[in-house]
Design a protein that fits this description.
Layout: E1 2-7, E2 23-27, E3 40-48, E4 62-67, H1 71-81, H2 84-89, E5 90-93, E6 99-103, H3 107-116, E7 122-129, E8 132-140, H4 161-184, H5 189-210, H6 224-227, H7 230-259, H8 281-298, H9 303-308, E9 352-356, E10 362-363, E11 367-371, H10 374-377, H11 387-406, H12 413-428, H13 437-455, H14 476-503, H15 508-519, H16 529-541, H17 548-565, H18 567-570, H19 573-582, H20 585-591, H21 593-610, H22 613-619, E12 625-633, E13 636-643, H23 657-670, H24 677-688
Parallel strand pairs: 9-11
Antiparallel strand pairs: 1-2, 1-3, 3-5, 4-6, 4-7, 5-6, 7-8, 10-11, 12-13
Length: 692
Amino acid sequence: MWLKIVYNENDIANWHEKSEKISVFLEDSHSVIIPNTSKSFRVSTVFPLIPDNKKTTIDNCIILFFSFPNAYCVLGRVEKKGSKELKESTYFSLGLCSVILFLENEDLLIEFKQIIEQQEVASERWDLKGDKISKIVYELNANLEPIVHPDISADYSILNITERAIIDEFRICINLLMIKLNLHMSEERNKFKALVEAVDSMVKELVYLQSDGEIPATLSEYSKEELFNRKLKNSIWHQNLGRIIQINSALSYVSTQAFSGAVPILERRSLIRRNSLLGTGSTILALNRISGFIEKSFELIDFQDVITNKLSSTPPLKDSIPFPSYDCSDWSLGSLNTFSKNNTTEPSFGKLPYFSGRLGFRETEFSIAAALQSITSGASLEWSLMTLTHEMLHGHVRIIIDSIFYGSDNGKAEEEHAQFYRKFKDRIERRDTKEVQIDSIRNLILSYCTLTASHGSISNFPKDKWQGATIKLLPEETLWKTFAIENRDLSEIFVHILDLHYFYASRISIYIPLIWCSWLSVPHINGDLRQYILRSLLTIASTIKHPANERFQTSIRIFFDVMSKYNEKLESHIIKEVLDILQNDSLLMANYFPSFWISLCIVDLVTEVFYCPAIRTELFKDQFVSWASDEKDEDEVEQKFVYNLPNGFNDEIIEAPLSYLLDRMIKELDSMKDSDLERETAIQFLALNSKQ
């Protein structure tokens, strides 16, 4: 259903003083009904608490909008304890004002207050006379004590107008945003305070590079002579400006998507036109919850510190070379999980989440974007918010790979890479070397890169007919160029394997169909099926311990069986094409096996060393999570996962939002029923915000 206001722009000088000029309608339609007049309008989708209940008129009624810290529990209490009349008068939306009452009897408000046991953050009341608003009253109940907004401390007046304008934009965005943030999302204040501190450091670096003086603490590892080397200076300069621009772009999305439609509701129109009246604030809260939950879980280990410092004093991985006849049976002794109990990292400021129609699901250093389609269809297999786990892991894996190859971050990468190359060369040529764990990890990755030249990789076909895998040392410059090219494929292998084991409970039978459902919505997948098939096979291989050829054949069999099970449900010609490829033995051995084989060392490195069971325990820590083993045969055991919370609204706290979300996706995958997708999506967004 749609809640819509219609008004004449010329009549509205002040929203609240001229509210009698605004008409309000509640309309039942699958698509928005656009007024056939010259008047302006705003709309938002709203959903009845009782699915089949749909009001036919709201003339002369009172509309009450509430913003609650936990609207999911409020709606759960109304559903379980409310009278029939109250339940029929209760609706919900995707805005920050996610609980809406359409009242003809004010006694219902007394009942509502007695049931909910929660103080609203803000509320707004519209009294209707006929279909016109006769009065608007709003109340802000959050702590409105004056706070000192974080700001840039650096004096950047010395910079050119171009740079000043970029920094000015950031400061204005933060100042305006903090006013709303203090009221509606106070739990996010520390994130933005830390963000301002990070930008302040970048600005201080820019000011120093433009002038002179004392070297900023963040550049203390460099000498003055090094900092005024043109190459390094330009690198820092453009990198810092690029980061601030990236942050400004994300802030513009966050501000409009999070706070448009907040009390007072008519103050600012949402740029997402389908929700131009009440906005999409609850969806941004859900993205904040997911990204913050993942970031907090990964703070169990300071990966950068462990990789750059601890792994330089631990024994090397046994039998990692000669490649590919390595033995990874003891690699888990060097797992990063062993550092989890003694090493915790400082909280990060977190990513800025927003929805994008152009970028879709995308991660950057400072932001995380979800597809705009998820606002209406997030409960579907194609546009599930579970896709965010993959994107969030790209940031995590970037830290891992950067720490391995650029760990000291001292601007001397060329010298360090020369040293890494010498160690790799000595290892390949079987010279006696004093190797530590970080060396053996680098050497494994460089071995993989070396072999991609002949055997191909996820995104590159093999160059020659496969005859074996003997490492032939590449010239230093060629090797580092190959590493740069293969970085993306390396990242994808890391991400898929960690995604499976961290967020999908290591369940291949669930992970494979769910990721293919999300891929089927990507237009270009048909142009590069090989890449997606190899990603799937390597992920499956992370659960199998056999020689390479047997591992390949077993992965193909499992992949084929899983995809065949869902072939009819997914109804895609792409799935049929994948199944045909999986039955073409000659094609698989020629174009897939060589790349699969040399990638297995990365698969095992991730599974045995960089996967941390302690983090997965943290991700699934919830009273509603239960487990059971489903034994298939001697080699295959999947631990079944269930989130024991009924569908719909519940008066319960969801401690592990991704466990809740995974359970909903599993049920959707196994169900053939048609449901009200947009309504189910809205319920999921509100459920993801259910926390203490």
